[in-house]
Structure formats: C-alpha cells, structure tokens
Amino acid sequence: MSSSDKNPNSHNPAEELSADASKLTKNAKSYLKRAAKLGQDVEALKAGHTLEGTATIHSIEDFKELMSDGLTDDHRQCFSGLSSGEAPADDAMIDALADYVYGTKDLSPEAKSHAEKLFPVTVAVTSGESVTIESDQEYGPSGPPKLINAGTLTFDGGSITAVTTSLTISADKLKIVKSGTKSYTVGVLGKQGADGDDCPPSPAYDKPAPRGKDASAPSPGICTGADNGGTGDPGKQGQGGDKGKDGEDGHTNLPASITIRSMDATSPSPFVIYTRSGGGGDGGKGGKGGPGQDGGKGGKGCDSGCEGTDGGDGGKGGNGGNGGNGGPGGNGVSGTQISVTFPRAQQSLLQTITDTAKPGEGGERGASGKAGVGGKGGEGGKHKTNGQHGQSGDHGDHGTPGTSGTKTGAAGNINVSYI
Question: What does pTM read for this prediction?
C-alpha cells in the first residue's frame, strides 16, 4: 500500500513506513496501527497533524483488511445471508467481490481474476488523533472508497453522507458536541435514478396540401364544357408526439462499515445512522402532437371571354397529431447492509433509521396537436361563384400519462454488534 498525504511537515520516506508499523507496541492506539498499514506518516499523526490524502491499495485482500477491519462474524454472516444471488451477470461479479470483503464467501477463480483487473484502487483517507466534523461532508456519488480513521471522532454541528460510495469509519472514541442541519450524523445513501428526458413537440408541416387544379377553356373565349376548379387536397394528419423517455432505476448504496470502540457518555445528542437506497427517476413528458397540415386551396374556375365556371372547394385540414405517452417511472432498488460495531455501555446513544426508496412517477402526457385549417376556395370564373372554404380537421388526442415505477426499494439492513 502507498499513501499520498497533504501534510507540510511530512518527512519520513515511504520505505520507513512499514518499519513504523512494526515498532508500534500492543498498547499503541488502534488508529495509529491502521494508519501504519495505510502507509501514512505515523510520526506526523503523533505530533497532532490530521492527514487528508489518498492511499493506493494493491489487492482485494488488503482492501478487505482495511475497509472491513471492525466487522464481526455476525456482520459477515448477515451480509452473505442477505445476498440474493439474482443479480444480472454484469453485477454478479461485483457482488461476489463485496461478499468476499464484507461477508463470508471465498473468491472463486473468476472473481479473483476480475479483482486483479480492478486493483490497484485509490482510497480517500482522513486520519488523525482528533478528527472533527464541523460541516456537512458528502462523498460521492460514485466516489472513491472513503476511510475515516480517528483516535477521537467529534461531530460538532456536521455530518457525513456517502452516496453510492463505500464508507469505512473507524474511531477509537466518538464524541457528539452538537447536532448539525441534517436529521442524521452519518447517512449511507443510494443515488436517485435520473429522470427521463421530456420529448420536444413534433414539427409542423412547412406548407399546405397541394391546391386543386385550375379549370381551363376548351377553346379560346369559350368555357362551355369546362370543369369547375378542382378541389384542394386534404391536409395530412400531424405527426404523433414521441413517448417520454424512461425514468432510470435507482442505484443502491454501497456497503459501509462503522466501528466505534467507545463513546463519550456526556454527549448531549445521539449518534444517528440513516440509510436509504436509490429511488427511481420520473418518466419524461410525452411530446406534443404536431399540427395537422392545412388543406389545399381550391383551383380556379374557367374564366374566358364572357363565360366561366365555379371555383373549386378548399381541401379539408388535416387532423392534429396525437400527443406522445409519458415515459414510465424507474424502480427503487433495495439497499446494501451497513455494519455497525458500537459500545454496549452507550447503547442508548445509538439510533438507526431506515427509509424506503420510492419508485419514480410516470411522465406527463403529451398534448394533442392542433387541427389543420381548411383550404381557401378557388376563385370562380366570370359570373360564377368562388369555391367554399374547406373544413378544418379535428384536434388530435392527448397522450396517456406514463405509469409509475412498480418497485419500492427496501433499505439495507443496519446490523449492529455491541462490544
């Protein structure tokens, strides 16, 4: 493992860090031992510095040792027992790796091969004799794994939220000075599915339907036997609106391990752990139907000499296009277990809250397209009448609202072991 810390007083070369770990006595504070395993500057930590940086973890075995250090056998058995084994093929391999890190399963040859392709990985690390959270800190969505390694972890008006990001908190002592703006101290959340895109309205026709044929004189100056002007072509129906895009399914929270070895019993507020998986996104709005095409103008009547014929009638306007249906909402997804180790003596100061991930709502229906206007009547010849104006078409039908998602995501189990 290698480390990169933001510490102006760091002076030990990397090759000395493993020696630091071996020099620590059995009575050394746990956070220092963990820091040494991460390759952090132990002497800087002893001097009171808080180290913010990254550590490179080269194998899944090392990842398991560091990110799930405080898990009990009960935690691991429960994690493996909740695995459904019904994940899609693309997710099954990731589930197998998680079951190895947080559960009881061994790596199959296929899973081990997959892990070798993923590692090394970078972990964001905060280590310190005293780590104080004074503001709302959020990691993710889909950020690098986060490890908070503290001698004393103090919440003084702040909170920690991990969104689809693996979280490990390991503290030798916990103290709550005051609550923050959130309803929890630590939140482990999934990510809301993206809303489906709304569809744009369908386009209008750029010109009316073709006009009717003009009548012509059979002989110069004579309209006897000539036809009336032709009727304009009817307009075509407007283009139907497209269906709104589907709302995306939610994304589950990633595993979290929270190990508190002792807690200041004088803390005025409880330590609240909250979890909710990812809810479904809303469906997109259906597109508005396109307007019907205007009817064609009637053709001109014959007009020659002292004679004429009637103008042609205008064509009927096209019906408006139907509105598009709203897109369906996405489904909520079930959450992943959060494993908590907590001192039995301060059991009354621990609160756990779980919440369901709701499915997304269906998208709004698309509006109907306007009716096309009837074509104008053609001009009549001498002493004859103009054609009649064509009838307008009918409005299209509105689309149908999208259906809401059908699945609510159950929260991941918060499994607490007291020590």
Answer: 0.82
